[in-house]
Amino acid sequence: MRNDSNIFDVGYVTKELEKNPFTNVSKIVSDAVEDAILTMRLKPGEKLIISNIASQLGISTTPVREAIDRLAEKGLIKIELNDTGKQSIYRVFKITMPEVEDLFFVRKAIEPASAYYCAEHPWLIDLEKLEDLARKFYSGYVLYDKTRDKSLLIKTTKLDREFHKLIVNATNSKVLIETYKSIEKKLTYLTAVTGNEVSDYSVKNLVKIGHQHVAISNAIKNGFTGEAKLLMNEHLNFCMNINRKSFD
Questions:
Q1: What is the mean pLDDT of each run of 10 residues along the chain (248 residues)?
Q2: Coarse DSSP helix, strand, coil percentages of the chain, rounded to the nearest 5 percent
Q3: CATH code for the part of the protein at 12-92
Q4: E-assigned strands of 100-151?
Q5: Structural domain boundaries in the chain
């Protein structure tokens, strides 16, 4: 979607409409901007100028404004007022430590219980997929530790969200799933931010996180309910501490 000078290609909206002429243009723009945020092509705190985005996409400003408002409702864009208090300024969401702590507070209320439930009812979760995600996540970070291939890092980091989402969704609890879904975009964003700021020190921690995924997967597979819950809780605490250090 990106060329040498722009975030978005002029023909992107047209191509998407060719796939489905009934798609709402503001939805296409919203998806494009959201993808740019979650993949860090639009940086945290970066100012968004509606006319520039419209110009890059070759469309009017109206669907862009609608898309920005939609993303603001999701929490991925912050709306501020300029010095006169009359004109809106749009910026990419920049996560703060209190917001990270809030996200992990919700995660710790949901995910250990979900891991326990999956271990108690292992036939409800795709164990083969869970094991595959855990294995690829761990081996991906081990390989990154050797190669420092940034594309491999980004690809591997995305597996984290798939692993945790699979466990929560397997509970079939509408309350848990909807609550988790409400924070999913910010979790994806946090994963992208932390994955973009990996140091030599944190790579070793990422490999440890890979070990933890494998251990959680094994506990669920073997029906070890208490262990699955404990391992998930320890895993979230470990991840929380890594994020806390990145804000120091």
A1: 62 88 91 84 90 92 94 86 76 87 95 98 97 94 84 81 96 95 84 63 80 97 98 95 75
A2: 70, 5, 25
A3: 1.10.10.10
A4: none
A5: 12-92, 97-247
